[in-house]
Design brief:
Blueprint: H1 3-25, H2 45-59, H3 74-87, H4 89-94, E1 96-101, E2 104-109, E3 119-124, E4 147-148, E5 151-153, H5 161-176, E6 185-190, H6 201-210, E7 217-220, E8 225-226, E9 238-245, E10 247-256, E11 260-261, H7 271-284, H8 293-301, H9 308-315, H10 317-328, H11 332-335, E12 341-349, E13 355-356, E14 359-368, H12 374-385, E15 391-394, H13 412-424, E16 429-435, E17 451-453, E18 458-459, H14 461-465, E19 473-475, H15 476-491
Parallel strand pairs: 3-6, 3-7, 7-17, 8-18, 9-16
Antiparallel strand pairs: 1-2, 2-6, 4-5, 5-19, 8-9, 10-14, 10-15, 11-13, 12-14
Helix pairs in contact: 1-9, 2-5, 2-15, 5-15, 13-15
Length: 493
């Protein structure tokens, strides 16, 4: 009987917490007030209709990034830069434009109030190869820029020439109307993001740093408006605004061996055998699952939009987090949002069946959850392998980086994007999100304490499969609404 009052108190705490979170994040609620709509510039209908054709011209230029950099066609990258001048003449007349290299473009749009901190928009104009495998074939040529049935086809229509073109078209239209933002606006466009970004974003960020620039916020790719991807929203789309980004590292694990004739193997086993045992130990020991703050805030913001039972769990993560983590762990996509992942992607050893290999090596790729670090992971792997002969080192093929911690959702950037989305995409629920992939924004982490990753395109799971896959395309409706988003955003800067 003595426990019954405690149980009632506990239940009241849970219920009170649920109603508090629901009220906090409901539209028009105490904490979620949207500013009254300010005067917003508009893009003339004729220019909106011409925009898909402009993007199509950019798609037709095959600015393909290859891991083997000697395969890059530099003439395509130069042609792309020239085409930008042709398509957006007003931008190039009124903004300060600097071509730092074939892979680095910098634009500066002067604002009216120099006391305000500037903002920086990122995008990249390189794309991955559009190769076909077996039955996976492109229904439209990948660099045709063909428009059919209200869709524009081609590599870069989603990743991410589209974002660059939306930024440029919006600026072009507003400059034609003699619009001037209050803040300075900068565009930094890289041409090698798909192969690490060293020659693009790496160069651009160093240039901006040398000028002692600090930005109110920085906006890059990474999040989208997810349609039919979160079943508990019952068809309502979610605007996933990337507020944190997982880190990246690939470790090379190597095992030395004694080469010789296969008829006389050593008792301690071959290099392949020792390395294989180590890999098995690694794969059996997953990194622990955690709900990092950005994911907790995302779930809390869903509370007004889900059924009460689920909302009850999302509002009380202090007690329900273990259950949420268990459910997330059942699916590879959601599991990747709650833990540092590891995947053995390459294994090399041996030359001939009757020769003992002198070494065996593998590559283990990791996407690092905020709160973990490369140095701690290295120490953990050494302990897990339980074999001092196994060497663990950074593979060095790709720049490694620790996670980028979450931007405060109460900051200017997220607040502004949420307000704009309320007008341009009122059906979407805007929430913070953890970005799984690696973006150019890692190079700019010291230039602002607010980095946001978002592209205003509404995409389904089928659409997402075409990114780095076949039949990449974007709807003309998405392009039109994207222009509206940026027009409203620039009007507030």
């Amino acid at each position: 009987m003595a426990l019954f009052p405690l149980f009632i108190l506990f239940l009241l705490i849970l219920i009170t917490r649920y109603h508090f979170i629901r009220r906090k994040y409901s539209p028009g609620g105490e904490f979620e007030q949207i500013r009254d709509t300010e005067q917003v510039q508009t893009i003339p209908e004729e220019e909106r209709k011409e925009f898909p054709g402009k993007l199509a011209r950019l798609i037709r230029i095959p600015t393909v990034s290859w891991t083997d950099r000697t395969k890059r066609d530099l003439s395509s990258f130069r042609e792309f830069q020239k085409e930008l001048e042709t398509l957006f003449p007003v931008v190039h007349k009124n903004m300060a434009v600097e071509k730092l290299s074939d892979f680095a473009l910098l634009y500066h749009w002067k604002g009216s109030d120099p006391s305000l901190k500037p903002v920086l928009f990122l995008a990249h104009y390189d794309v991955v190869p559009a190769e076909e495998n077996g039955e996976e074939v492109w229904l439209k040529p990948p660099f045709s820029g063909e428009i059919e049935e209200e869709e524009l086809w081609g590599r870069g229509t989603l990743d991410i020439k589209v974002q660059l073109a939306l930024l440029m078209e919006t600026a072009e239209a507003l400059l034609e109307q003699n619009f001037q933002p209050e803040r300075d606006i900068w565009f930094a466009f890289g041409g090698d993001e798909e192969i690490a970004g060293l020659e693009g974003a790496g160069v651009l960020s160093k240039e901006l740093t040398s000028r002692n620039l600090k930005f109110e916020f920085i906006m890059d790719e990474g999040g989208i408006i997810a349609r039919d991807q979160l079943a508990f929203l019952k068809g309502k789309p979610a605007a996933l605004i990337g507020m944190a980004e997982k880190g990246f590292v690939t470790f090379k694990i190597s095992s030395p061996g004694t080469s010789g004739h296969s008829s006389m193997p050593v008792k301690k086993g071959t290099a392949i055998g020792r390395l294989s045992r180590g890999i098995v130990r690694l794969e059996r020991k997953l990194f622990p699952s955690r709900l990092v703050p950005v994911m907790r805030n995302m779930l809390e913001r869903f509370v007004p939009w889900v059924n009460p039972a689920l909302g009850f769990l999302f509002a009380n993560l202090w007690i329900s987090a273990p259950l949420i983590r268990f459910v997330f762990s059942r699916n590879p996509t959601t599991d990747s949002l709650i833990r540092t992942t590891q995947a053995v992607t390459v294994f090399n050893s041996g030359e001939q069946e009757n020769i003992l290999p002198g070494e065996a090596a593998c590559m283990v790729n990791h996407r690092i959850l905020p709160g973990d670090s490369i140095s701690r992971m290295h120490k953990r792997h050494k302990r897990t392998l339980r074999d001092r002969s196994l060497k663990v080192e950074d593979a060095g093929n790709w720049p490694s980086n620790d996670p980028i911690e979450a931007t405060n959702p109460s900051g200017t950037g997220f607040t502004l994007l949420r307000e704009v989305l309320e007008e341009s995409h009122p059906e979407a629920v805007a929430v913070p999100f953890l970005v799984n992939g690696s973006t150019d924004s890692k190079y700019y982490r010291d230039l602002s304490d607010q980095i946001l990753r978002f592209t205003p395109l509404e995409l389904t799971p089928q659409d997402l499969k075409t990114i780095h896959g076949i039949n990449e395309r974007v709807s003309l409706k998405n392009l039109d609404r994207g222009l509206d988003f940026y027009c409203r955003l620039f009007s507030r800067l």
